[in-house]
Write a structure and sequence with these properties.
The complex is a heterodimer of chains A (363) and B (513). Chain A is mostly helical. Chain A contains 13 helices and no strands. Chain B is mainly α and 513 residues long. Classes of the chains: A mainly alpha (363), B mainly alpha (513). The interface between A and B is large, with 55 and 62 residues.
Chain lengths: 363, 513
Amino acid sequence: MTQPTQEEELLAQQALAEAAVTESSEIISGLSQGQIVRKRFFGHTGALIGLAVFALIFLLAFTSVGAFGIPGWWKYNHVDVSPLVNDGVPTSSFWPLAWGEHPFGQDRIGRDLFAMTMRGAQQSITVMVLIGAIAGAVGAIVGGLAGYFRGWVEAILMRLTDVIIIIPLLLLAAVVGQIANRRDQGSWLTGFAANNGVVILGVFLGFVSWVGLARLVRGEFLTLREREFVDAARISGASNARIIFKHILPNAVGVLIVNVTLTMSAAILLETALSYLGLGVKAPDTSLGLLVAQNQEAFATRPWLFWFPGLFIILICLSINFIGDGLRDAFDPRQKKFKAKTAVETTRHSSATAPVAEASKGS
Amino acid sequence: MVTYIVRRLVTAAFILLGASFLVYLLTALSGDPLEELRTSSAPNRQALMDARINLLDLDTPAPLRYFKWLGGAAQCLVPFGNACNLGKNISGQPITEALGFALVQTLTLVTGATILAILIGISLGIVTALRQYSALDYGVTFMAFLFFSLPIFWVAVLLKEFGAIGFNDFLRNPEIPPAVALGIGAVLGIIAAVVVGGAVKRRLIVGGSVFAAVSLILFYFSLTQWFRNPGLGPVIIAIMGTGIAFGITILVSGLKNRKALQSSLIVAGIGVIAYFAVQPLLNDATGLMIFLLAIAAVLVGVAVGYFMGGYDRGQSMRAAGITAFLVGGLIIVDRFMQAWPSYFNNSRVRGRPIATIGAGTPNIQGDFWIMSTDTLTHLILPTIALILVSLASYTRFTRSSMLEIMNMDYIRTARAKGLSERSVIMGHAFRNALIPIATIVAFDIGALIGGAVITETVFSVRGMGFLFIDGLLHTDPNPVMGVFLCVAITAMVFNLIADLAYSALDPRVRIKA
């Protein structure tokens, strides 16, 4: 155990030494890797705002209409029909600040749009989290095994990854979305799926989204397994499992977390797009993408039906993207902290090292 | 090298086999192709079901059906065999035929959008990298994040509403109220001030002049109903040509190279003369003719640069050639504008030119210009939507690549040699920053064909995405497999090209054969 901590310290010192160019006030020693990452993350304004917005949406979506059988505090739900108030125009207003009976308005038959949007946001967040968790777990296992053991394990796992990666994700997702929605009589899934359709969808989509992660994790494992601290652990008699979980994985966790976050931001767009195409969440249940699809024809007469669900998609995706950006800055020890003033000064004095690793953004 | 390519191709063939088997099984598993018939109340229900079972060969289990399909598909590999058989879709149309049609539709849709997104994205990325941590950088970074988070179907509906319906309503009575004109001018002026950078005084001057120019132009457009009868005319072409000549020369060789500037200006002058010369020719234009004219224009430009010569002949030729191409483009744009009123008043268009769906107005008739304008008005909204969502990744990628290069030692060396900032950026940094971008572009072109599924659905273009989704909804594996084959093969070929290009462009990367 002494070896990896030394390694971590080395990394941390390296990170701080480079960061010290920009921030002389930061204390150099005595911080664990976790503390450094936390410190860097909480110094990233965009990420903090993203985190706050996402937490707010999460709480609002899950408490307002209730989830997991627990009733929420909002008086309507996404299927109830109530009489139209003022022809369904949103009753909320900024000045004077008021909430009103139907803050986001109602649709043509009188369903409350706030309740529908909240339910949709719930579904979309559930799918997003499931995709992130499953893709992260499968990607880490496949990539880790391939990168650590090499040989035929790597050959088989990486060819499997190649097979899945050449099918464009949206096309593959459309196919599995269709499978997840299959409701045959007497199928073993049907009983469970009738109540938790969105969970099935998330699980299926998670099992096709892991390939990119697996490649990244494998690359990380390939470099880490050649490092001295792994040799030292092996000579001390550590088992393969111990080396993987105690020595290599903690060092690869940054890459994993950052890319899981970015997968999740892509996942929310994937789910909404599938639901929009009619291959994801289906009526009578609802999702943000489905709401946009159902209401796009009504844009001329009831534009609010279209604005609010779309706005929530953008807010969720944007906040996750900013969180991912903050995490990437925090985990990448080579990266300078994003502080405009000091950065401008240092680049003016000497064009110091500042390779910004944003390559994974494009994927 | 050859061994490497052969090995890659053999691996690719096996991967393709595995992936196609997977897609076939999953598609067959995804639903019941007889479902709509089971619930129908038609009297000949059983006969319809039997016919469909027969057509799709449903009595054979799906894994066996895959090998039957593979047998047909393998015949496509025989060159000039004409025995290509990818099966038939649910309405009995051969897949090869449907694919051909869909491929053309998709390519017309995505080609322009991809090229524009790459050009705009790379330029934005370079500008933000050069002005790191400026207001422009922060603004573009935020916009990139925003565009990255935009659901394309949502953007598309907004575009239909405001870009098509709103703009068509505006064209009915194209008058811009003075307040709106001033507002647009102010917004563009602020953007210009942010983009131009530098001292406050310089920003104010540039922003103010842009504000004044834009507002005046909009007043002029409003008064003359320019949007109804647009046109450039020789005077505007001459002014814009001079601007292009200066701009291109600044980028390619710098204004200090007088010979390059002179050749670009001469080419712009030739362009104005050519404007009158080619008008009768353009009246019965064809696509081929435009293409040949474009090549001729570039050749004239290169020739002018060659004869002007100077100490660096290559720079003059490059500057003049690019100027010639762009001025030629202006003449074509002007000709399109001349055709605009007749398109606008066409009985099929009826004064609502910007279309929201489809790939062309049904049954429209007219000459080359009318037909091309029709295609363009149908392409404009999906193109904008595609550019918006794909712009962000290019911008961010170019920015990070450029920043990395700008901190390299050889850039410092170049500066220390006393090179001008222009040649440091264009000659040393930009070229090297393009290497990683070239591979990303190759990947993206590979993914292009299957990438526009949602855009095609929103704008009702019957391309590859439509074929795929339609096949999937009917649980019909044959069209799904056809689309998959096209997409996967292009993706693999372009991945190979990307790897080869990388090792060709960057000598540090060697292919291990």
